[in-house]
Amino acid sequence: MELLKLTHENIDKEHICCAISNNRDIQVISKKNWLKDRLDEGLVFLKGNVRGKCFIEYIPAEYAWAPIWAEGYMYINCLWVSGQFKGHGYSNLLLDACTCDSKSKGKKGLVILSSKKKTGFLSDPKYMGYKGFQTADTAEPYFELMYLPFEEDASFPRFRDSVGRQKDMPEGFVMYYTNQCPFTARYVPILEEMAKARNAVFQTVHIQTREDAQGCPSPFTTFSLFYDGQFVTHEILSEKKFDKILADIGV
Question: What pLDDT does 59 receive?
Fold first, then answer.
């Protein structure tokens, strides 16, 4: 498979895999604008030259929108191969390309956010372990920071001290999110309206800077939902799933 790298010159005409509708779609607009602002920081979006979900997105860890300490590493935002493209070795192809690129740029290794067991929106720990990744740090309730060092004496990445510090969070729902994932542009307004219709206390924190992302209480800044200061989920919720959460708390 041919791999294609997004650039300032081609980003407006190329689709972004996880949202492949036209450039007038709010999901595509928000994601592409976010990408454009990151390209000059060293972000790489590498995709199969196909119409579907087959891509890897990574950035120097110092510029990652994640509360981690991983100086000198490359942070993988997302590695996603799905549908008809699974089972053909494309995940290996994309990860190997990222590894070669990162080594050529003098990086210490790769870092990625995973979990104790496979779950949506996070990398598969079994696959990452198969590729040589190890767990460097953990955070409640299930997050794991995995890394692949290129040097034997490479420093250990870790979560920042902000992770898990939600004791001063207001009551009710608090949702942290960024535009790194196009699906937040679609679902966050829907969830806000659902909460409003049920008179639920609901507050959104739209993270719009790297500095704010690196100080987030959740390792997964793309989307994290809390209720009364307790972590609920990192998975971007559909209407059905959020309705169940509201019903479970009696709203």
Answer: 98
Nearest to 59 by CA among 75, 80, 79, 47: 75
What CA–CA distances, in Å, run from 188 to 36, 102, 111, 202, 238? Answer: 22, 34, 28, 11, 10
Q: Is the dihedral of CA 239, 244, 249, 250 positive or negative?
A: positive
Yes or no: say if 159 and 75 are a contact pair by the CB < 8 Å rule. no
Q: Which residues constitute the domain of residue 196? A: 173-248
* Cα dihedral 88, 91, 92, 96 sign: positive
Nearest CA-CA partner of 39 in 70, 2, 21, 14: 14
pLDDT-derived band at 4 (thresholds 50, 70, 90) equals very high
Structural element, H or E, at residue 220: none
Backbone angle region of 199, left / alpha / beta, with phi > 0 → left and psi within -120 to 50 → alpha: left
Tens of pLDDT, residue by residue over 182-199, are: 999 999 999 999 999 999
Task: Kindly tell me if the per-residue pLDDT of 50 is higher than 90.
Answer: no
* Cα–Cα dist 36/191, whole Å: 27
- pLDDT at position 21 is 62
* Residues 48 and 12 reside in one and the same domain: yes
Could you give the number of structural domains in the chain?
A: 2
Residues 191, 116, single domain; the answer is no
Instruction: Please give the radius of gyration of the chain, using alpha carbons only, rounded to the nearest integer.
Output: 18
Q: How are beta strands 109-115 and 74-81 bridged, if at all?
A: parallel
